[in-house]
Amino acid sequence: xxxxxxxxxxxxxxxxxxxxxxxxxxxxxxxxxxxxxxxxxxxxxxxxxxxxxxxxxxxxxxxxxxxxxxxxxxxxxxxxxxxxxxxxxxxxxxxxxxxxxxxxxxxxxxxxxxxxxxxxxxxxxxxxxxxxxxxxxxxxxxxxxxxxxxxxxxxxxxxxxxxxxxxxxxxxxxxxxxxxxxxxxxxxxxxxxxxxxxxxxxxxxxxxxxxxxxxxxxxxxxxxxxxxxxxxxxxxxxxxxxxxxxxxxxxxxxxxxxxxxxxxxxxxxxxxxxxxxxxxxxxxxxxxxxxxxxxxxxxxxxxxxxxxxxxxxxxxxxxxxxxxxxxxxxxxxxxxxxxxxxxxxxxxxxxxxxxxxxxxxxxxxxxxxxxxxxxx
Length: 376
What we know:
- By secondary structure, this protein is an alpha/beta fold.
- The protein is built from 16 helices and nine strands.
- The strands form three sheets. The chain has a three-stranded parallel sheet. Strands 2-3-4 form a three-stranded parallel sheet, covered by helices on one side. Strands 5-6-7 form a three-stranded parallel sheet.
- The chain is globular.
- The termini are far apart.
């Protein structure tokens, strides 16, 4: 009888795999075997057949960015005719629309704008929090690191001030691939891999939860993908501050990197490996924005337990020519047709459907008031 693969035995025993084993899985494991291993880990972490999603809106407060990343089709130079900084009136209108659609948070990101100070960023946060009861998931590590350098402050000071002004959590954008050899080629003016990790470390130490991401399918090697995953895993061991990991594929349209788009099979392999390697991160999110509805359903059998945002608005990926949009009802249908129970969550993965049911049973929800919004 052929001896069983020691890596599979390790995973069945809920043991951590190392770099060599991760590399072998990515390069050699049959696709369905890889998916099955990831699915078993997902089942161990999430035994109930539930898939979560969040209702929110991506608001890009500016498209001006000094980074000039080769992979970005969204940014504009300061003097470009399409350059903008969102007015407070437009910002308020977008948030009002989000709340009316049942949104619970906004993803607030922009660029490294040379004329926007830390005071300006604080003013945006205070403007929102003084007017709206909504969670702000905002300002990725490159934005925060840029502000720290611009203001000659420590990263910890910048995070503390943003948090005091109303920042609730930090998105994992700007990670791309956490290997400096890659970053120097595709985003040479953006923070280094270690600086990205340091921003997240400081945020976690100050009590802010964050997500982590990976954009692959451009110039990275398979070993670079492994490096990225292991760096995220190591920081999570240290702080426990990551709520979720979201891998997605680079979209080359309208960018300055000429490559063929990664295939759905390549996406599913990396997604499954992410679930296997990141044994200390509870949630793995499928990227329907880059993969479309059908592959996102398949991803739920490859380790993902979350479909992310309804994306009431999305600009960055759309600028690359990819325009998948799903309303809340469609996300629920996709989840249920894949054989799972759909549950709306907040940024911290609290079950809002369950909370709503509990409040309704206690008579705390007015069925006739404010389009069904909760009264607290």
